[in-house]
Specification:
Blueprint: H1 2-15, H2 17-30, H3 40-60, H4 74-101, H5 103-106, H6 115-141, H7 152-176, H8 180-193, H9 207-212, H10 217-231, H11 236-260, H12 264-267
Helix pairs in contact: 1-2, 1-11, 2-6, 3-4, 4-6, 4-7, 4-8, 4-10, 6-7, 7-10, 7-11, 10-11
Length: 268
């Protein structure tokens, strides 16, 4: 039973490729429907956030990147962590409504519902990888490019699997527990400030408290991006965290979704 559900989950985007492709294309372009700014908003939103954070933490509080990263501009240090986070936060924030919004379709048509969380995660990551790629091109021209950058797609892929597992869980549970919709927004805010994105982890003097941050997988993801891009290496500790956590999240989240998806029609 367990392995059958996992197999269906793993095969979903491949066995149902045409449906997956149509859902992705439709939902991707629907973001720009009746929008005057269109695709411009994809770049304006993170840029505005970055300008605000950069002004507050770099200009007012005079924040500096940790010494081990050299004389790097704090804005670059900030962006390396913020852009991948924005992809995660966008997907995670949309999760509560993914299945609920498709209620008319789920209750009338028989189709592989597991496509919904997969599509709902692919679109934010597909959207924000454009901005992240442009930023990497800029850093390459600034001379930061190294052989270690070959690891970036691997780390980004693991982050995608980690996010997909969480999206599957949240989108499924929100069908039965609608209060989770409000809790997710609050959780994202807390999670953001508990992840060293707008501040370096070195600001925390207590080493015991620093080690507690390792319980937050997004801390390891953000640190891995910064180490790969700026230092040309990555800490084995972060890899030992994000690899198993991503796989466990993807498998367990998919199993839970597959396990309870048959009850969606009764509740919706």
């Amino acid at each position: 039973m367990f392995f059958n559900l996992i197999r269906e989950w793993l095969q979903a985007p491949f066995v149902n490729y045409r449906l997956f492709h149509n859902f992705t294309r439709q939902d991707f372009f629907s973001q720009f429907t009746a929008s005057m700014g269109g695709v411009l908003w994809l770049f304006l939103t993170p840029i505005v956030h970055l300008v605000i954070y950069s002004f507050v933490f770099s200009y007012i509080f005079r924040m500096r990147a940790p010494p081990e990263f050299g004389e790097i501009n704090f804005v670059i240090f900030l962006m390396i962590g913020y852009l991948p986070w924005f992809a995660f936060a966008d997907a995670f924030g949309r999760a509560p409504n993914l299945v609920i919004e498709k209620a008319p379709l789920i209750t009338k048509v028989v189709f592989p519902v597991q496509i919904i969380p997969i599509t709902g995660t692919v679109i934010p990551y597909l959207t924000h990888i454009i901005g992240f790629t442009i930023f990497l091109v800029y850093l390459a021209f600034k001379g930061y490019m190294s052989v270690s950058w070959i690891l970036l797609p691997f780390i980004f892929g693991l982050q995608f699997l980690f996010t997909l597992g969480l999206v599957a869980v949240i989108s499924a549970l929100c069908v039965f527990l609608r209060d989770l919709q409000q809790m997710i927004a609050l959780m994202l805010t807390v999670w953001f400030f508990l992840t060293p994105i707008i501040y370096p982890i070195s600001l925390i003097q207590n080493e015991s408290v620093q080690r507690l941050f390792l319980l937050n997988p997004m801390h390891s993801f953000v640190s891995a991006y910064r180490e790969i891009i700026l230092l040309g290496t990555v800490s084995p500790v972060h890899l030992m965290i994000i690899v198993p956590v991503s796989i466990i999240s993807y498998i367990s989240g998919g199993w839970l979704f597959m396990r309870i998806k048959h009850a969606f029609g009764d509740v919706l």
